[in-house]
Automatic annotation (TrEMBL):
This is Integrase catalytic domain-containing protein. Pfam families: rve. Residues 111-244 form the Integrase catalytic domain. PROSITE patterns: INTEGRASE (PS50994). It comes from Methanorbis furvi.
Length: 282
């Protein structure tokens, strides 16, 4: 917690003038007793109230030589702070931070402030369901164990693999087959309402007409089963990250692969192995 100047004065006054217990003062301002002792000791040593601490590292101020070099190379090369930073490091062996270079250029009116470059993107949408079977994730992954393509249906709320299997190829037909198995297996509890996938050709037709329509077997199956198909953002696997992370972690070591395969039960059916329900540790 960062204390303001008024709070620092109040803390020192309570301890020094009013003789409040240090433990009580620390609890009042939600700080440690060590911090209270530190403030009181600094006040008694100097007779002045300590100034509040400034968050973050202090700004790096380039030396006069580096400042002159930045200005000269800016005029000569006519590039921005990022290119100047790389040029100094690779050609001259001098390391000057991009922000320090940009600050010098701003002070010399050799560049302008661009607010859009400092824009912080909003937080990504995180799909977090409270009820099982309200949404499931689907994805394909190549097994490190035998090179086969693995497809799983993972429940969003419980992280349980509802269905899945190993195939020679990643196709739309096998995707429908795995999703159908999960749907029929747990339909007696509650039908699956949403499925979250990426833009893979197994789930989505990337070639569409001018109205954005296309005939794709997986999308048609979702409409027939009244399942809402949610697509992850392009080049943003975090949207479907629960199943992505789980499959990557499973594939990271032979022990995890054997553990996943040990949960595959039954015999080969239609070129795949039936999967039991398991909890994927993510």
């Amino acid at each position: 917690m960062v204390l303001s100047q008024d709070e620092i004065i109040q803390i020192i006054t309570l301890v020094v003038d009013w003789h409040f217990p240090v433990v009580q003062v620390a609890a009042m301002y939600q700080i440690t007793t060590e911090r209270v002792y530190q403030l009181v000791q600094a006040y008694r040593k100097t007779g002045l109230y300590p100034a509040p601490k400034r968050l973050g590292r202090p700004p790096i101020i380039p030396s006069p030589e580096h400042r002159s070099l930045i200005i000269a190379e800016k005029h000569r090369l006519g590039v921005g702070s990022r290119c100047l930073h790389k040029y100094f490091r690779s050609r001259l062996g001098i390391v000057i931070g991009e922000r320090a270079i940009h600050r010098v250029l701003l002070e010399e009116n050799l560049t302008s402030h661009e607010p859009q470059k400092g824009f912080r993107h909003p937080a990504w949408i995180r799909y977090e369901r409270d009820e099982s079977l309200s949404a499931v994730h689907m994805d394909w992954h190549q097994s490190k164990y035998n090179g086969k393509q693995v497809c799983v249906v993972l429940d969003d709320a419980s992280r349980m693999i509802l269905a899945g299997g190993e195939f020679d190829r990643a196709t739309t037909e096998f995707s429908i087959q795995v999703l159908r198995e999960a749907y029929e297996k747990y339909e007696y509890i509650v039908p699956i309402r949403e499925v979250i996938t990426d833009h893979g050709t197994q789930f989505y037709a990337n070639t569409r007409d001018s109205q954005g329509n296309a005939e794709h077997a997986f999308e048609k199956f979702c409409r027939e089963m009244e399942i809402n198909h949610i697509l992850a953002r392009v080049k943003h696997p975090q949207t479907n990250g629960k199943v992505e992370s789980g499959l990557e972690r499973t594939n990271s070591s032979d022990r995890n692969i054997r553990r996943l395969r040990s949960l595959f039960i039954g015999t080969m059916r239609s070129g795949r192995i039936k999967v039991s329900v398991m909890k994927m540790e993510i």
